[in-house]
Amino acid sequence: MIDYNTPFETVAMPRDADETRKLIVANALSIVGINASKLETYKMFEDLLGPVSSYWDLKRPFRVWKENGKWKTEGVSTCGVVARGIWRRVAVDMPKIYKDYNYGMAMIDEQNFCHSLKPRSAWHTPKKDDNILPIPGDYIIIGSGLTTHNITGIGWDGDKLVSVDGGRVDKKTGLQCIEKVERKLEMVNGYPYLVGTMKRKIVGWAQVDLLPYRSVAVAPQGWQAVNI
Fold this sequence. Notes:
Layout: E1 8-12, H1 17-29, H2 39-49, E2 63-67, E3 70-74, H3 79-89, H4 108-116, E4 123-124, E5 139-142, E6 149-157, E7 160-169, E8 176-188, E9 191-195, E10 199-206, E11 216-220
Antiparallel strand pairs: 1-11, 2-3, 4-10, 5-6, 5-10, 6-7, 7-8, 8-9, 9-10
């Protein structure tokens, strides 16, 4: 079973779409349980989040508030940068993810990148009654405003989407962690929603078989045995 203790190896990036999705799902499974509260996984968390000009503020709980008409934050919300870290491991050929992170741009950068691809965008926005859903490996955005959240789908269990999520909160310390999550699919007026602790609309997702990749990726050992 792949977990955060599984050793890594470098592999040639697969040319087959299903193998690419296996590689993404395996990388997602390999980060479940990483927690800023745990000494043994703190450095793993920093490495996954990638380059930044200052430092990752993981030692304080994330919070956001309004003061004198301006939004302020403390700590860091990691959902978008965790999903970006998975893309970096599987060598998505998106130059921005290999440079210092520009705060607040996770998800925006990825969507813009997907839309810029030729001959067709890799981004799918659900249309009313189109009955198309994300599949394992896809990079998914749900919710809006302050409830916007970024997840990596790893499979369906009946009508439940199973995903790996950054931006989760350790119940004891309030610090950021990465968890496997299940949310029930609910169709509302022809559009897909995911229901967990709250109900959030599926905004859209990157179809990862349409993304460009570099030639060499990082993989947890045993990744080819992952079921998708």
